[in-house]
Q: What sequence folds into this?
């Protein structure tokens, strides 16, 4: 018989793959915290703030597919692939659970860099628009689009030059 944490994890995975922010939010504890891979400046604190982040995320991400899960009775690490715009990405999610089997901490890790900058240029503005700050959303978008363009160019043209298999 599955444990509460196994049931919560299965519901979290299903919600993620379906793009169901409300279903994912239902897996969270009231005091849940989400730690973004994009900034150390702040965390999303409380179920409502994390839910708002999840709503913005489902606007940005497509084709999420979980492929690996490891962990124990208090912690799970989930690994998935997906797409943000034209950028393919891989993500790791570290989930910590409370005594009721709800997610109390969500720490996100992602790669490669062009996918992260694509997310940065879209999720921040989506969050700001939802907060009723469309002007600031436009400023953030304008500031992050060049960063994404630079990382995308670097990934496609410059980084391959360092490939160890490349002939001299």
A:
């Amino acid at each position: 018989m599955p444990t509460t944490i196994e049931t919560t994890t299965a519901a979290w995975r299903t919600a993620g793959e379906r793009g169901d922010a409300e279903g994912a939010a239902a897996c969270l504890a009231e005091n849940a915290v989400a730690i973004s891979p994009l900034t150390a400046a702040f965390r999303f604190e409380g179920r409502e703030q994390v839910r708002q982040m999840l709503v913005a995320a489902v606007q940005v991400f497509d084709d999420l597919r979980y492929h690996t899960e490891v962990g124990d009775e208090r912690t799970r690490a989930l690994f998935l692939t997906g797409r943000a715009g034209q950028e393919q990405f891989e993500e790791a999610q570290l989930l910590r659970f409370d005594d009721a089997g709800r997610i109390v901490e969500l720490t996100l890790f992602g790669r490669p860099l062009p996918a992260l900058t694509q997310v940065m240029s879209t999720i921040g503005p989506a969050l700001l628009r939802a907060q009723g700050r469309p002007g600031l959303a436009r400023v953030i978008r304008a500031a992050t689009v060049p960063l994404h363009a630079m990382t995308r160019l670097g990934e496609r043209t410059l980084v391959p030059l360092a490939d160890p298999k490349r002939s001299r």
User: Anything to note?
Assistant: The chain has a mean pLDDT of 93. The first helix runs from residue 4 to 18. Strands lie at 28-35, 44-45, 61-71, 75-84, 87-97, 103-111.
